Amino acid sequence: MRKKSTKLLALLTAGITAASLLAGCGSGSSDNAGTSDAAQESAASEDAATEDAATEDAAEDTAAEDASSNEDAADTSADASVYPLSESGTLTYWLQLNGNVSANFTNLGDTELGKKWQEDTGVTIEFQHPAAGQENEQFNLMVADGNLPDIIERGWVNSYPGGPEKAIADGVIIALNDVIDQYCPNLKKYLEEHPEIDRMVKTDSGTYFAFPFIRGEDGLCYTVGAFLRQDWLDDLGMEVPTTIDEWHDVLTAFKEEKGATSPLCFDYANFKMSNPFAFAYGAGSASSSFILDDNGELVYVYAIDGYKDYLTTMHQWYEEGLIDADYATLNGDQVTAKMTTDEAGASVGWAASRMQLFMTTAQQNNPDYLLVPAPQPVLNAGDTPEYGFVENNFPDVGAAITGSCENVELAARFLDYGYSEAGHNLFNFGTEGVSYNWEGDRAVYTETITNNEDGWPIAQALGKYIRANYNGPFVQDLNYLEEYLQLETAKLCPGTWGVANARKHIMPPITPSEEESKELATITNELGTYVDEMALKFIFGTESLDNWDSYIQTLENMNLSRAIEIEKAALERYNSR
Amino acid sequence: MKNWSEYRKLYLSYACILLIPLVMAVFFYFYSYQVVQRQADASNINLIHTIKESCDRELQYYENVLVQLALDKSIQELSTVRGDFKGEEYYQLYSLHTKIADLRMAINQSGDYCDDITVYFKNNGKLVSSNGCMDLDLYCDLYCFEDKESIQWLENYFSEYHVWEVARAKERLKNGSLPLLLTMTNVKGDFGETTAMIGLWIDIDSLTGSMELEHGGNGMDWLMISKDDQIMSRSEEFENIGLTYEQLEEGNDGQLEFEGNKYILRSLPSEVFDWKYVLLMPERSIGSSVRRLRNFFAISIVFSLCIGFIAASQMTKKSYDPIKALLDMFRNYDKENRQVENEYVYLREKAMTLFEEHSEFRQRLHQSLEVVRQYYLIDILIDPFGEQENNTPERMEICRKFEQGHNLVLLLKIRTKTGGSSGEEQENDTETNNLQKFIVGNVFGEGLSEVFDVEMAELGDVMAVLMNIRQMMPGFEEELLETLDRLQKFIFDNFGFRVAVLAGELHEGIGGIHLSYREAREAESFLPLLDPDYINYHEIQNTSNQNYKYSMSQEERIITAIRNNDSQLAVSCINGVLDMNFKQLKTSPVTRRFLLYDLAGTLIKAAQEMEGALGEEIDLQTISVKMSYQEIQDWFKAAVEKMCHPVEEESTNDSGSQLCEEINKYIRENFGNVELNVSQIGQHFHMTPAYLSSLYKKNTGESLLRVLNQVRIDAAEKLLAAGASVLETAEQTGFRDSSTFIRAFKKATGTTPGQLKNSKRS
């Protein structure tokens, strides 16, 4: 076990170093960027990946040494991190119950994970869950009432008006710097080893505010991408498309040759800006409306030229019937229905909950049914993708200790468990011997997960034992995703979708000041409503793209420049952390 | 038998006591059943009203929503589109979708009632829902039914013309809810035909559930029945209840039996839809609360009865105390007399007095018995003939003791040292005399009864000891003598006086007592003469006969001479005897003393034969062995001459009758004195009682004792006749106590004093 974790750490450090190196390279070369450069880069990145694998053994030795020396240091500094804790107690813990859990359980404490978590730490937890869809309302009520649980797990950077600093100033949560220093050797160690993540999980003034959910590897951040019917491609003698044009051809072929009524079908609500086609035009964004363009300049994604090009293409495809006519109102159910009934041939979504799900569903009737992930498309063949879907390593979910908590030390030690080796395994893999077994260095899920006797989908089965399939106060392990992705082609997804430079263009979790965020919210809400409306109008053709200039003018009238100003200031503060 | 009936009465009364609460409980039970039913009914009617109002309000709201949608501009526009929608219209569909989604959210704010809102465009089969825009088939496939029939039904239903109608789906939706489909067409169809159908899917389970939750109607069942008798609400269990819309009239409270359960029905018509709300109240729900009430009653009755019994028994234990009550009674009775500290002291005193009285009584009884015993013993001793006359049980008992074997009488006489007692010290003397008598009686009684069978009796100044000897033992006499000697010595040593013992002979039978007594008495006469401590009559006779010569013929000659008043012959005879014994035989002084006694006895015999009282003349105390021979001769001569004189003078009778007169007078004057008896009279006249008695008898022909008694009885008769009580009479007439008096009286008159008094009175 211990050896396993050191290996993991070694891998992690190796991977990250490589990635940052490459990123540095990429940014350097993108100035005189051409499509050929991009292509070279993509090749380089692949090389780097193989290199990674090749040098793994070599790197392991040194890293392992580092890790072990670090471990020793941690051992001496860790004063009382022996679980279960000698001091037992009861804590209340407020969090939203994930859909994969709530399908079968009403309380996280009823799950095997919840039980083992309490058992291992020796702390009794009373979990409190808000009704689905009412998280913010109930949180606001709770804060207004002043009757807070000991621990609240939710987003703090974007969801709390004014951000974490304000939450601390309001007395809702407490600053954790001293707490982490004194009681949380595991988290402290992790943050010391990962300064770029450390920067994400604290405020501009360097205050820690929560026990963060951390995606431990970049592979875990490339969660969304395009995928399409390999069997149809094979039938048509076509390759997986890599450019927009190729996509156009493939979709047209699907429509005409395969009789797909809606060749490209994805739910607009989820992926209106995070689909690969938007990224192809440099107008994609995983979450924020603001991105960093080629020059590293902060821009409003709905106002850039690339966005106009993207809309033009979409409108064209829509007119041609390549995109589902009901594209705007689709939801997952309908996408699933269409993708599994040959109505659609390509979609955008997550590897496991969409692509793998479609395959397992459809293969029951059509064994030939096969989906493959498509790499981030580029405009010109041979280009290296510059933009792509990537999530932050810290996706703004963290468990904070509230101002009402009486036993801060107990809460802190309890939460620090997630960053320990045992906690890491529990949250990512569950209970050894029950939900997973070690096969060499890898944790492999048992049939309890993969072939659930209750007939639950794998996501729900995972929800009973782990939290890696959503979030929580721990570091997510790529091993989880690789095991979660059972099907061959699904396993390819993180690698295929990954865009090395993608992280350069996304906004880090910046924390605007309270006043700024209020103003920003007012502006962006207004902007958001307008751009959403206009986006569909442009695509459906209700509004001609000839009116682009007036659209931009309207945005300016909505005080867009002020919003950019605020964002820039916050980014500057972030960068100077 | 009587006991049994008493018990029956007791138990019957207990039963009555039990019956009252039981009857009351039954009465309360039925009354409260009524009340509970009425209240339940009232609350149920309330409930159905509130449910109706809430439901109607919700439905009203839905109606408004539907009407609003029906008038919606985009729906109007979209419904006119023939054929497939185009790009621009899709944006309208998108807007409609967001609008519907918002509406649904709004409806669901108060609860998850609305499953979905759909707008179906008949022209192209497109359906807009909060889940998105899609074909009806897809919608059904994803959200509605799996059953082809249901899909067909839905398609047909949406194609028909409905304005504000309600239908219940045949099947549950995929999300598990059983929907109620409210429909409304858009009004402006071309040619009046329906081109868009708006549907509102209501989750009836959650709606009714929240109604019940809100109004506390848990445990109640209620239904909504539409005009075509379809049950709209959930509760599939009542699917076949068979209620029809027509049956239900407003306010009608019917009863219904369904699947073995009885229900009470209450119904109300809806104001929004053409349906009726029906409340089903299971009778057993009332029953259960009443059952609880009944159990409560039963338990509380049993409990209170138990408490009552316990309390009653405790109170009885505390309050019912017979001894205390008795004491209270006593205390109240004695209240006027005195205040007693507490009952125990009082009781102790009472007990003490009772005990004292009792013991005194026993003492008295003992005394009386002793007196009786004394009386009979004396009687036996003195009166040789009383045997036949007075055979009282007491006497018999005493006699029985002496009937067998031989009897011996001892007389114990206290010897006073001083020769004569002066008159002044007489009272003192009687006191010491009594004390000495007491000592003698006790000492000899104790001492002799150790060895012999004895009875003691007091005879004046002499104590008589009656001994019964069953079998003659060889050493008897020696033993007796030894004992007596010891006792005499003991008394002398301890008390300083001497006691003379005078013994009679042994005689057989009861009559022997008297004989022995007489002999002892005779021996008494020799006491001053012989001065010993023990004089045996037998010894007197035998020793004189043996040791001195005084033949019977000589004695007879002397007596005859005296009788014939031939004093000279008598004197010469006596002299001859004296001469022969004193001079010729030269007998010992002791023998001489016996001789002198013998001679004196001869004189007494002679005197007795002459029936003359010679006691005065023959003073045995004046003769003694210590006198000289001449003096003795002179003494005898004088005595004989004295005896012979009266005969010559013939005056002895006068003096005797004169004495008798005096005795009679003395008796009449002193009979009231208890101490008056024969021996006391003897003392008074300076004669031995025996002599006095014989003198008296000789002169009057009557026994002195009898006369004394007669005098007393006569006086008593007079007193009784005068009205005096028996006790008084006994005291005044000199009887020692009433019992003695009564016995004597009866002996004399044949009746008891009480009887006499009574007969006199009547």
> What number of domains of chain A?
3
In CATH terms, what is the architecture of the largest domain in chain A? 3-Layer(aba) Sandwich
Chains forming the largest contact: A-B, 17 and 17 residues
Q: CATH homologous superfamily of the largest domain in chain B, by name?
A: LuxQ periplasmic domain, N-terminal subdomain
Overall CATH architecture of the largest domain in chain B = 2-Layer Sandwich
How is this structure best described in words?
The complex is a heterodimer of chains A (577) and B (762). Chain A has 27 helices and 14 strands. Chain A has 577 residues and is α/β, with parallel strands linked by helices. In chain A, the strands form 5 sheets. A 5-stranded mixed sheet of chain A has the order 2-1-3-11-4, covered by helices on one side. Chain A has a 3-stranded antiparallel sheet with strand order 9-6-10. In chain A, strands 5-14 form a two-stranded parallel ribbon. In chain A, helix 14 (305-319) packs parallel to helix 25 (514-540), helix 15 runs parallel beside helix 16 and helix 25 (514-540) packs across helix 27. Chain A is globular, with a radius of gyration of 24 Å. The model of chain A is unreliable at 1-6 and 8-78 (pLDDT under 50). Chain B is an alpha+beta fold and 762 residues long. Chain B folds into 4 domains: 50-284, 2-Layer Sandwich (Beta-Lactamase), CATH 3.30.450.220; 325-531, 2-Layer Sandwich (Alpha-Beta Plaits), CATH 3.30.70.270; 548-650; 654-761, Arc Repressor Mutant, subunit A (Orthogonal Bundle), CATH 1.10.10. In chain B, strand 2 and strand 3 form a beta hairpin. The chains are: A alpha/beta (577), B alpha+beta (762).
